[in-house]
TrEMBL record, chain A:
Pfam families: ABC_tran (PF00005). This is ABC transporter ATP-binding protein. One of its GO terms (molecular function) is ATP hydrolysis activity. It comes from Paracoccus subflavus. The keyword Nucleotide-binding applies. Belongs to the ABC transporter superfamily. PROSITE patterns: ABC_TRANSPORTER_1 (PS00211), ABC_TRANSPORTER_2 (PS50893). Residues 11-239 form the ABC transporter domain.
Automatic annotation (TrEMBL), chain B:
The keyword Ribosomal protein does not apply. Residues 39-227, 308-492 form the ABC transmembrane type-1 domain. This is ABC transporter permease subunit. Belongs to the binding-protein-dependent transport system permease family. GO terms for biological process: transmembrane transport. The chain crosses the membrane at residues 47-70, 77-97, 109-136, 204-228, 249-269, 312-336, 348-365, 424-449, 469-488. It comes from Paracoccus subflavus. It comes from the Bacteria. Pfam families: BPD_transp_1. The keyword Transport applies.
């Protein structure tokens, strides 16, 4: 997969606030600049508003206050160019299409020419070779999620957004994909944002971890992950890895305690 | 197998009963063999009318659904207008169409179209919205808009719903065409039915009823088979009531007012645009005059009121009995699975028979009084309710059933706490859809046989060319059906909110 002609796309979030119609504030004042071509993990407790933040970056939600630019453009512009892909928490495969058609759908929707070779390669890469003609109903939850990731990658996006990408996967597959996928999006020069509540996953996959508070989401800590690529599975035993996990975990715990104290008042 | 048993039972009954009211299959077959040409000619007329009605009605449904899709704000209005038209009493609409369109097949075709479009429109509207929100998020995340939504998601997601709607509308088209033939056509199965009812020709009546039933079941089964080949994903039974208006009481009142206004404007405007003669094409203000300030207004009101009460007294118990019998039998069979597996295919086949077309037969069998009317209304309500309730009873979620089993809960406990609550949405949905059906049944029997109630008043007004009264009966029946429908919907929403909250968002 050759890098695109475009330079890496930086994502800039300025003064982001998201308040829903029912008065619930999901995101409360987030300023972030995500360097192009790097992978950032948004780490936070369940329901903290990290998915809402991701949806705003994807152009699916409008911020109530503040704004987002990607490579100097609004997210919707990148969507229209077909250079932004989202892998949703729900694998979101269309039940009447075969696995292969579902993965090819990404390119179709992005109005890119069909590219059977890339599609087949991705299918093999996520370990679904031999299942091309199956319908989603016949696949396991983990297989569907891998298909969704393959669909997102099929357009060679400049921006790749992953919402709990490994949520439904078993430990073995999770380990395998954590090994196989980052080189793909890194090589393509994609700016990747992934939402997760697993500290180990954040350290393993990202160049940088942004720890978010319980709802409404604010930035609690911004932790660089200076581990070398490629990262092997046994890296998770290394002292440097464990120290990063401890740092991120400590930030999460502090945030949880603070919000409980606020709630108690 | 079940069919053979039924046939044998039928023949035995006919032999025992002396063949006066009940013609055995042998008698019917020999009659049909002797009158093949006559039947074939009538059948081809009825089928042609039904086919045209099927085509036009379903095209109208698809068009309306498209309008509601392109302008979502019009959804409530389109749904409301569609419901009002669906509540029109086919029986009285026939003679009005007859004077408007003159002799020929026009009225039968229109009635067939009216009988089918609603049962296609509602599933189609539901199907076009049946996709989960994340699929639309996916489309939007690639920067694509409504057309891509339609092409990649909505059209395909709606396909099984559309096919289900088309399947149901095949027998409904036959029903509409035959109701049209009951009320003053020259040719067709309905005309034959009327003639044989007058002559009390029992084998002939059974023969025509059998042919009409076959003419309904065959396309129903064929479309079912075709649908299964085209789309292998079965649509869920659609339970969520069409949202006419939602939101605050003020907005509801405003929506209802808008709907009433739209009906009046379309009615009046349509007549004016077509330049129809006021003598038979009554406008809303003509009816207001006849009902309120004409010299004989008091008498008109009195006649209308008496007929309405008469109709309600017979329709209501039949309606409730049909619901109770449908739900009751479904529950009973869920306790006796072996009997259920025998009965269900039969019930599904019988459901596709337009019961109304057998009205003359039921009247001959049970008499021209309350019993016949109530039986027919009950039958009309029974079959769809039974099939829907059986489906509902099976909807109890598997994991919760397992939980009950793990506590060794008995069959009765599972029935009371799990299966019956799971069935309620289906019961209420059929109760809602059965309102116009029940009214159709009662007016048909009154028109053809009993000589009482609104149906009879319609027949009388039509034969006397009393168009004020004819239009008034249409208006009364439509308003009555719409009000009942609204009342059942309101009850249904409460039940759904409690037992099937996921259905209320659709």
């Amino acid at each position: 997969m050759a890098p695109d002609d475009h330079p890496p796309a930086a994502i800039v979030c300025a003064g982001l606030v998201k308040r829903f119609d029912n008065g619930m504030t999901a995101v409360d004042g987030i300023d972030l600049t995500l360097a192009g071509g790097r992978t950032t993990a948004l780490l936070g407790p369940s329901g903290c508003g990290k998915s809402t933040l991701l949806r705003m970056i994807a152009g699916l939600e409008e911020p109530s206050i503040g704004g987002i630019t990607i490579a100097g453009q609004p997210p919707a512009a990148l969507c229209r160019q077909g250079s932004l892909s989202v892998a949703f928490q729900d694998p979101c495969l269309l039940p009447w299409l075969t696995l292969r058609q579902n993965i090819a759908l990404g390119r179709k929707l992005a109005r890119l020419p069909a590219d059977p070779a890339t599609v087949d390669r991705l299918i093999d890469l996520v370990g679904l070779g031999g299942f091309q003609q199956m319908r989603p109903a016949a696949l396991s939850g983990g297989m569907r999620q891998r298909a969704a990731i393959a669909r997102a990658l099929a357009t060679r996006p400049r921006v790749l957004l992953l919402d709990e990408p490994f949520g439904a996967l078993d430990a073995l597959t999770r380990r395998q994909l954590a090994q196989d996928l980052p080189p793909l999006w890194r090589h393509a020069g994609a700016t990747t944002v992934l939402v997760t509540h697993s500290v180990d996953e954040a350290v393993m996959l990202a160049d940088r971890i942004v720890v978010l508070s319980p709802r409404p989401a604010r930035v609690l800590a911004d932790i660089p992950v200076p581990l070398d690529w490629p990262r092997r599975p046994d890296l998770s035993e290394a002292p440097a890895f464990r120290r990063l996990v401890q740092t991120a975990l400590a930030a999460l715990v502090r945030g949880g305690e603070r919000s409980q104290a606020v709630a108690a008042q | 197998m079940g069919l053979l048993v039924l046939l044998a039972l039928w023949q035995a009954l006919a032999l025992a009963g002396g063949g006066y009211l009940l013609a055995g299959p042998l008698g019917v077959a020999s009659w049909l063999a002797a009158h093949g040409g006559l039947i074939l000619r009538a059948l081809s007329v009825t089928l042609a009318n039904a086919a045209w009605g099927f085509l036009l009605g379903n095209l109208a449904a698809i068009l309306l659904a498209a309008i509601a899709l392109v302008w979502p704000r019009l959804l409530n209005l389109v749904g409301g207008l569609a419901l009002v038209v669906f509540c029109l009493p086919l029986v009285a609409t026939g003679p009005i169409l007859r004077v408007l369109m003159g002799p020929g097949e026009g009225p039968q075709v229109v009635l067939a179209a009216l009988a089918v479009y609603y049962t296609t429109l509602i599933p189609l509207l539901a199907g076009l919205r049946a996709a989960p929100q994340v699929w639309f998020d996916l489309i939007r995340s690639y920067g694509r808009g409504r057309w891509s939504e339609l092409a990649h998601v909505r059209a395909r997601a709606a396909l099984p719903y559309l096919l289900a709607g088309l399947q149901i509308s095949a027998p409904a088209a036959v029903l509409g065409a035959m109701v049209g033939e009951f009320t003053g056509a020259e040719r067709g199965l309905g005309v034959l039915t009327i003639r044989f009812t007058r002559d009390l020709d029992v084998p002939a009546l059974w023969g025509v009823a059998g042919i009409a039933a076959a003419a309904s079941i065959v396309p129903y089964a064929a479309l079912g088979w075709l649908g299964a080949r085209i789309a292998d994903d079965k649509p869920p039974v659609i339970l969520s009531p069409p949202r006419i208006v939602r939101g605050s009481p003020f907005r509801k009142a405003a929506g209802t007012a808008l709907l009433v206004g739209a009906v009046l404007v379309l009615w009046w405007g349509g007549m004016e645009v077509l330049g129809l003669n006021r003598f038979f094409a009554k406008r809303p203000d003509d009816l207001a005059e006849a009902l309120l300030w004409a010299p004989d207004a008091a008498r008109t009101r009195q006649v209308l009121w008496a007929a309405t009460v008469q109709t309600l007294i017979w329709a209501l118990p039949g309606y409730l009995a049909g619901l109770a019998a449908g739900a009751g039998l479904a529950i009973l069979l869920s306790l006796l699975p072996w009997l259920g597996s025998l009965m269900t295919p039969l019930a599904v086949a019988l459901r596709s028979i337009p019961i109304v077309t057998t009205a003359p037969l039921v009247v001959v069998l049970t008499g021209r009084g309350a019993a016949g009317t109530m039986t027919l209304v009950a039958l009309m309500v029974f079959f769809p309710t039974f099939v829907a309730c059986q489906h509902g009873l099976r909807q109890a979620p598997g994991p919760i059933l397992d939980l009950f089993r793990s506590h060794a809960a008995g069959r009765l406990a599972r029935l009371l706490h799990l299966r019956i609550p799971a069935m309620l949405p289906a019961l209420f949905a059929s109760a809602r859809m059965a309102v116009p059906a029940a009214i159709l049944a009662v007016t048909v029997v009154e028109w053809l046989a009993t000589g009482r109630g609104l149906g009879s008043l319609m027949a009388l007004s039509a034969s006397l060319s009393d168009y004020d009264m004819l239009w008034l009966t249409v208006a009364v029946v439509t308003v009555m059906a719409a009000l009942f429908h609204a009342a059942v919907s309101a009850a249904e929403r409460r039940v759904l909110a409690a037992f099937a909250p996921e259905q209320t968002h659709a």
